[in-house]
Amino acid sequence: MTTRRAAALERPLEDDPLLAGITLADLALIRRMPKAELHLHLDGSLRPTTALELARARGVDDGLDVEGMAERLVAPERCLHQADLLRAFDLPIAILQDAEALERATHELVEDVATDGTRYAEIRWGPGLHLQRGLSLRDGIAAVVAGVRSGTALVSAEGPPPIVIRLIAVALRSHDPAFNEAVARAAADAIADGVTGFDLAGPEATFPDPLLHADAYAVARGAGLGITVHAGEWGGAAQVRRALALEPWRIAHGAPAADDPALMAELVARSITLDLCPTSSLQADLCPTLADHPLPRIVRAGVPATLSTDDRTVSALTLTQEYARVRATLGLTMAELWHLDRHALEVAFLHDDEATRAGLIAEFDAFAAPEPALAGGG
Ligand SMILES: [Zn+2]
User: How many other β-carbons are positioned within 10 Å of the β-carbon of residue 206?
Assistant: First the structure.
């Protein structure tokens, strides 16, 4: 029997209750739009069939069938808080403890985002979470890099231009600061392989102070990695403000900043982008309904922002669906949505290859030129 949460993975877009009222024309345009996604976690985006196959081969399947696996990987639509939501990652982490599993999961995620019309994606993962069965940081990173290469080659074989992927290494709030320095060094060693960003994530309520990891950030910054940090999944605007001390280029989430006009003004003045994920924030109980998400206030205050899924499987969500939900439920215009999409390219961690960034922006602009609905988004 297919359970309710697992069923959301298979549900046609037209049956999503959060899309009630969207016009067919808008939905069609969102589907066709080339998209860029900056906030996407590898371990939250496993295909249930693959997860089951990998789990069985590694003896960590708990006797699940594919529906049971899907139910385990998709978090409840409403969790009690962030820590509750994070439980959906336990089994993926248990599965992804060797190079083969990491490479395959990454390869398939590249395929999945390409199928959704994504032309540029940053995939992030915590290299330090995948060492339980003897993998080294270096070999774990190499496996993810290999998955990007093979996935990109496969989807690009169907015709140019190739999808572009960059990687963000995530340090964990719950990990020892000295260990996170080692993660930053290993990530820095892989810049030439496409690891271009450094992030901090994990249980924010238990480990609220990001500055404990300032030394790891210093290593990352010194090496030329793009700097981002998860903030505001717990603790409101004060936690977003706290993250600014790390001088991030971008912030993952950060939506509670909307409650603090002075903080919003500072984000504008410092050109710090919020990589927002409204559905994921709703799941983590940061707003009562999706319609209450502060994205429109953030956008209309001029705060730089982008739109992402956070986790395709944990949230049973595609990027097309998230754009459509924001259009249908939060009332952003198509032009405002397009502005978020194009802005993602402007702040992407593509500083290793500005020619590629310029090429993607030219491609997006060429798409938008004959589409009057996309004009005027600022
Ligand atoms: Zn995230």
Answer: 11
